[in-house]
Amino acid sequence: MTLESVDLKAAVVAVDVEIRFAETDLMGVVHHASYIVWFEIGRIAWMKAAGMPYTEIAGSGHHFAVTGIQAAYRASARFGDTVQIYTRLAKLRSRQIEFAYELRNLADNALLATGVSEHICVDLEGRMTKIPQTVVDRLFAGAALLGSRE
Amino acid sequence: MTLESVDLKAAVVAVDVEIRFAETDLMGVVHHASYIVWFEIGRIAWMKAAGMPYTEIAGSGHHFAVTGIQAAYRASARFGDTVQIYTRLAKLRSRQIEFAYELRNLADNALLATGVSEHICVDLEGRMTKIPQTVVDRLFAGAALLGSRE
Amino acid sequence: MTLESVDLKAAVVAVDVEIRFAETDLMGVVHHASYIVWFEIGRIAWMKAAGMPYTEIAGSGHHFAVTGIQAAYRASARFGDTVQIYTRLAKLRSRQIEFAYELRNLADNALLATGVSEHICVDLEGRMTKIPQTVVDRLFAGAALLGSRE
Amino acid sequence: MTLESVDLKAAVVAVDVEIRFAETDLMGVVHHASYIVWFEIGRIAWMKAAGMPYTEIAGSGHHFAVTGIQAAYRASARFGDTVQIYTRLAKLRSRQIEFAYELRNLADNALLATGVSEHICVDLEGRMTKIPQTVVDRLFAGAALLGSRE
Fold this sequence. Notes:
Order of helices and strands of chain A: EHHEEEEH
Structural class of chain A: alpha+beta
Strand order of the largest sheet of chain A: 1-3-4-5-2
Oligomer: homotetramer
Mean pLDDT of chain A: 94
Largest interface: A-B, 22 and 22 residues
Strand content of chain A: 35-45%
Shape of chain A: globular
Largest sheet of chain A: 5 strands, antiparallel
Distance between the termini of chain A: 18 Å
Radius of gyration of chain A: 16 Å
Number of helices of chain A: 3
């Protein structure tokens, strides 16, 4: 089994977030920066579901620093709604990892936003480093397992 | 003078933001979602400098809802640093407006991030609408003025 | 049955919140302002459990504007932890409402913080107004029900 | 000169904050948790003005962890407004420090909120510790200087 043989797209993890009053702005809907925090909740949930919790990665002295964010907003989210965050691992290299997101309104499944986050691995001093092989292996194995479960 | 004849790239507005302790995360640097809020500060400052304050746009019953965000993170920002946000108007159509951002560390001019935000005009009920012609005209005139000042 | 005869202290609603990475700061623990947002999550959950969802109050053109916050921080909360927010209605008058909070670490039940929020009722223009009688009645009935359930 | 002989109340530092769009909520005004972040901006500014920047305190391996917050909200703040944060050192002990805040609308001097934050000194592991004597001395000298300047 190699990374290439794993269908990363199939390994989707869903997590629900009840919209917080504090996440809205004076337009009456959720502020667009909140979605970026939801993406983060999504990838944290993905890693946990994959058996490689981010707390362990951080505990080993590594972080996945964000190098890029893309978000496309399709519909407004409102206080009282619940957002369903679907996350999948989009790319996994020795030094880079990328997640893709789809946000839907739990009530009617309406697409709220899509997005991507790109990351590099850094050590506690913020220096770029390789993702520890054990982390790569566990993320990879988790993706395979999650993908086969669907 | 037409919109096409105005060099939007030349109309850059700079605003400084002192980094808040609350904007950092456990990695010891600024959380990536804070940059998205800084982009917003940048475009608000741009519109104010251009003579078309966002408070007036909102007061007239319109909002520039965010439809897309792209951000590329180049270096970490830290508590104690001051970020210089350079904003320019990247696109202005009858229904769309787009801003581009460059964030630099005031101390050493190091590039922290670049980004783009795309917007459509909506009314108070969130329905897509044309940007009021007077708003387009004033933004356009402001861009011309700001560009010629450089 | 009168308001005075209801033991408001008995009507406690618990809600769990997984700590977000974005809620931490460079001290490595949760930023203290995040607890204020958790209080809000607590009272929203309380009202929902009591059968008087805040979305309905807002929908009727009223808001419970915050007039006072007190928070006592006892222990740090960390990314990876889950916070259990216990909320009770502390006071209910014709124009005022007050909630009390107790935050505990789900893992070991350690007390993280206690707090109180005081509110007045305002209309959509922000003018002080009486809490609609139907809202008072439903909150009161909800408190009685929740209290008897324990 | 002793701590008791310094009139801490006289040492007030003012800092202006332009309200961010992201700080508002669906009530159309600034969310109450944002004021807690403004308090933090106020005390950071106070320490800087007093000649004992918080970056240096943190750099020496200490933090002023928040143990208590009280806030009284008097008037709403709106996007487009500028808030003037007045901060003074309210108490300074070997292990505790306390700041008091007054927030005013720059445009009309209207009182927006008052508040207090209580802190203990902790080391990088979060253990309670004495405030380093040099920090106490410099804060104390700064307060004396700021107070005499008024």
